[in-house]
Amino acid sequence: MTGRAMDPLPAAAVGAAAEAEADEEEDPPAADQPTPQAIEPQAIVQQAAAPSRMQMPQGNPLLLSHTLQELLARDTVQVELIPEKKGLFLKHVEYEVSSQRFKSSVYRRYNDFVVFQEMLLHKFPYRMVPALPPKRMLGADREFIEARRRALKRFVNLVARHPLFSEDVVLKLFLSFSGSDVQNKLKESAQCVGDEFMNCKLATRAKDFLPADIQAQFAISRELIRNIYNSFHKLRDRAERIASRAIDNAADLLIFGKELSAIGSDTTPLPSWAALNSSTWGSLKQALKGLSVEFALLADKAAQQGKQEENDVVEKLNLFLDLLQSYKDLCERHEKGVLHKHQRALHKYSLMKRQMMSAAAQNREPESVEQLESRIVEQENAIQTMELRNYFSLYCLHQETQLIHVYLPLTSHILRAFVNSQIQGHKEMSKVWNDLRPKLSCLFAGPHSALTPPCSPPEDGLCPH
Fold first, then answer.
1. Residue ranges of the domains in the chain?
2. Where is the segment annotated Disordered (predicted)?
3. Which among 101, 81, 112 is positioned nearest to 9, based on CA atoms?
4. 410 vs 221: CA distance, rounded Å
5. Cα 338 to Cα 386: distance, rounded to the nearest angstrom
């Protein structure tokens, strides 16, 4: 994410995409479609030999030393909509995904994003893998299509800026592989290696680097992130309403100006009893007709402010909320995944021990006792692995919590963008209002063409004569 506003999606492209929202079939790209720039697949696969490692400062490997600027500078990925019709009956939507870092531009479908996320979860189950927007909904309209495009852009930028994901071959394949079988390539790259626990040299010693009160710290951090998420969710909702009001204000100003123009363009002849005021009415109509230009300009300024706040404020808030949600999801996976499996393995082990004691007391056959002993040994090994995974999961959670705090200064970026947008918007609109004011003088022509300047209205809003 950068401070740069995203280009608004053309209405025609979004409308075509809304028509193209059908089941995502597995058709190859069209033959006449231009080939995007990409990196050769051989160069990508060759770099998959060595598992990636998160860069650590010297000293305790648990501690990270990244800044927000460093993370944002890792890459900026654009996701633009390219509606393409495939086949006679079925249609689907494609996206052009462009990476500054890899200097690549490839075409991806929603299902490609799904496989990409699945491979990230497979390789990095103890890290913050962002969620994807929903695949589709009945009667998907242009607003849904645009919202999903923005969400996919946030997803891939969060992944591309993660210290660990950004150095993994899965990301490089997704952003630069130009072949039609990208999903198979992603699966192959993940299947040839295990998850992070299997590849990290520190995995079995993770407990040694954790603080003694790690469980208490985890509970406190989880509660803090939950509170931050709730507060930022409310901020995002209010920011959306502010931006929406600016856009609604633009529409109202435009209609207001058009109605003034309609009055000025009225050709209905004056009745004979009003003939004495014909010159006054004609001057008034001419002045009203000319005001529509200024109101159209006011509407344009208000719309620009609303769009800018959508891109620079609402989208940044959504990006941070997506990150916070991925942390909440990670906490859920820790508790319902490795921690639950560990507890279940301990329960199974205790049952086996009781069976062993019962078998010894009943003097059963030696073979059955040996089989039970073998099963107990296997279960002990499983428990040991679960314990190691549990500590490694906490190790990763500790690091991901640090990343959340690295992103907290994003708040100042958001507030600065909001304040600048308000200042610039009000400044530009104030200039138009001030330019409009002198043109109102002819609207107050009194008897015998003597100009009567506009008076300050009393409380009832009516000007006495």
1. 68-200, 244-267+279-442
2. 1-36
3. 81
4. 19
5. 7
Instruction: Check: CB of residue 425 under 8 Å from CB of residue 304.
Output: yes
Is the CB of residue 110 less than 8 Å from the CB of residue 93? yes
Q: Where are the alpha helices (DSSP H) in 177-269?
A: 182-191, 196-199, 206-209, 214-264
Residue ranges of alpha helices (H) inside 88-213 are: 110-123, 142-160, 169-176, 182-191, 196-199, 206-209
pLDDT in tens, 213-251: 998 999 999 999 999 999 999 999 999 999 999 999 999
Distance CA 144, CA 110 (A): 14
Residue whose pair of structure tokens reads 């050769």 in the numeric block: 40
Q: Which residue matches tokens 């193209």?
A: 20
> Which one has a higher pLDDT value, 353 or 95?
95
Q: Which fold has domain 68-200?
A: PX Domain (3.30.1520)
DSSP SS3 for 351: helix
Q: How far, in Å, CA of 188 to CA of 182, rounded?
A: 10
Instruction: Tell me the C-alpha distance between 324 and 404, whole Å.
Output: 7
Residue given tokens 């394949």 in the structure block: 173
Q: Domain 244-267+279-442 - what CATH class?
A: mainly alpha
- CA atoms 324, 329, 330, 332: torsion sign: positive
